[in-house]
Each structure stands twice: as structure tokens, then as C-alpha cells.
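Subject: Sanity check before I submit

Could someone independently write out the C-alpha cells for this chain? I want to compare against mine line by line before I put it in a report. The sequence has 431 residues.
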Amino acid sequence: MAASFSGMLQQSRRRAVLLPAALLLAAAGLLAEQIGLAFQVPPLAGQQLNQHALAQGTQKTPGLHSGLFTGLGSGAARLPRAEEPSTEASSFSIFAATAVAALAATADAAEPAKEKTLWDKVKLPVYACLWYFFNVQYNITNKRLLNTIAAPWAISWIQLAAGIPIALLMWSTGFVQKPKVTKDDILKLAPVGAAFAGGQVATVASLGAVAVSFTHVVKALEPAVNAIASALVLGQVFHPMVYASLAPVFLGVALASSSELSFTMFGFLTAMASNFFFVTRNVLATKFGSTGDMGADQTTRKTNQLAVLTFVAAAVLLPIALILPGGLLSFLPACKAAISKGTSASTIAYMTAASGFHFFMYQLSSFWVLSCVPPITHSVLNTLKRVVIIIVSIIVFRTPVTAQSALGTAMAIGGVLLYSLTKAHYAKKGK
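---
Independent answer below. Compare away.
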């Protein structure tokens, strides 16, 4: 017993050294990369293209395909391909972030329960930074992929399924303890997986139909949907002031929608549908949260919950993604069509793989954050994350924004923050 504890302590100390070293390496690499970019002179051709873009304005993305997702991408402002800025993270940045995530995944399980270490003090900011980083990268890469490939059902499934090999790798290498689930556990999780898959499909559809920033403004309504669903399904009724605090969210989304230049009803409705699906997932996950043996510590449990849910969601969505137009059977023809228009096969392969990797990693780091903080803190961090995504996407895709749209966006995001703080205030008073 003493030998086992001693080995665990030594392993913990090694990780306590490795994690800060990895963080320093990542920071140094990113700093060097940005310094190098700062001294690069843009080519003259690029300057001429930018001048032409300012004179001509942005182009509209053609509708990606007909069928169930008719109108997907129509109306979304988009630059000509040659003018899109290269703002995706470099391979080194992604490798460094992944290395930090891999070390983070094993740190909690390796440390003795009563010993307060450096990792205990820094893990929340590390998890939050990983969450924001991978989520921003996902939104950028995913939007470019949707602008290129007319197969949203296929893209939705591929991004879900991308987590399967990552989970298998974590379990096979011992980074994460394998969960113990039975057939009955899988059947119980099937509705949760279906809601997860539905939320993913609806989000991808909305991101393809309208500007990324607008999708996230509409998705700011998720707490409102959650409050209503909690009352109807779980019987959780909050103080009237909590519901009143949602008024700015509704008003803000209404203002932003009425003046959004890329607005389509399809994009708005699919963004709202994603809210309902993800709230359903969260409510059902609360109900079946104790299903199976997911591990000893919080981080391991959250990691395994997402991994198992990813398997279930991919299995549920697979037959639908095979049958419907824009699904897996349409993926290769859509790739050939994109290649015929000038996009290289390697670019398509990279965007497809990267979007799936970023999708799983941002979900995973979000679950890690939730393992460290109460739901209300996670909600506030999620609100701030939407602010980051909205600002970055507007800059990256040069999305035109009216004054009314900016005001509506600010009201919606501020309203979500007000709702979270009001809910926390009355929750404390009720204790």
C-alpha cells in the first residue's frame, strides 16, 4: 500500500513538472510564431485583392444543396476564396494545445486527494483556455468546410464520429480509465445520444446558412429554453426575477435578427432547434448522470461520459446520415465538385479532419471545466466564450454588422450574463 502511494506521488510530481513545462513550451512557440507573423510583409497581390474586395463588397455564398437543408448557406456573407485570411491555428499551436490537454486529462487521477498542488491552482484556467481555443478553431474551420462541401449531414456525422478514435486512443494508452457500461446502460443513453446528434446537425445547418456570429447570438437563447424545460420536465421552478432577467435576451435576439444582413429563416430556426436539442441532452444527462461506472475522479468521469455519449450519438445518427440527401453517400461527389472548382483534395481532407478534432476537443475541455466549477460558473464562462467567438468570427470572415445588430448582440449576451447572476443570487437566498 505504501509502495503504491509512493509510486503515485512520484508520478504526480513528474506530471507537476511536465504540465508547466508543456504550458511554457506552448506559450513560447505561440509567441515565436506571432513575432514571425508580425514581420511578414503581405504580398502585393493580396493587397490588390483586398482593395478590390473593398470596392466590390462581399459575395454571397451559393446555396449548398437542395432537399431537407434547402437554403443552407444562402445569404451568408462570404469573401471570395482567394481573399480569405489565414487565421486558423498552426500545426504547432494545435499540437501544443493537444499536448497540454493530454497531460491535463491524466493529472487529476494521478494526484493524491489531500495534496494541494500547482496543478490544482491552474487547471481551471488551463481547461477554460483549451475550451475557448478549440471552440474558436472549430467555428472557423467548420464554416470554411461548409462553404466548400455541400454535404451537411455527412459533415455533422463525421465531426461526431471523430471523437471515437480519440476516445479509443485515450483508453488504449491508459491516459483515461476505461468506463464500465452494460447494454442496458447504452440503451438508457440512447435518447441522450439522439438529442446530442440532433443538436450537432442543427448547429451545423445553421452555421452553414447564416453568419457564425448570428448563429451564436441565437444560441444565446439556450438558457431561456433550459429554464422552461427545467420547469416542465424536472419541476425546477425559479424565482420570478430569474425569468424576468431573460427579457433582455429575447429583446436582443429580436433586434439582432431584424437587422442581420445574412438572416434566413432556415438559419434562425435551425439555431433555435439546436438550443432545444442541447437542452434536452442536458436534462436527460442530468436524469441518467449516474449510468455506468465512468471513473473515480470528476475529470475522468466527465471525459468518459462525453466519450460514451459520442459513441451513442454517432451510432444513432449513422442510418439517417446514410439515407438523407447531403449525407455520407453524397460526401465524395460533393468533394469532387469542390475539387473541380479549385479546392485541393488535401485542403478538403485537412478541413474535414480538423473540424472533427476541434469539435471533440472543445466538447471535452468544456466537460473538464464543468468538473471544476458549479453549473452557474460554467454558464458564465460559456457566455463569455460566445462573446469571443462572435468577435473573432466577425473579424475573420469580415462580417458586416449594423449598429442595430451590434446592439442586439450586446443585449442578448448581457442578458444571458444577467440571467446567470440572478439565478445564482436567488439560489443562494433559497439555501
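---
OP: Matches mine. For the report I'm noting this point. The first helix runs from residue 2 to 38.
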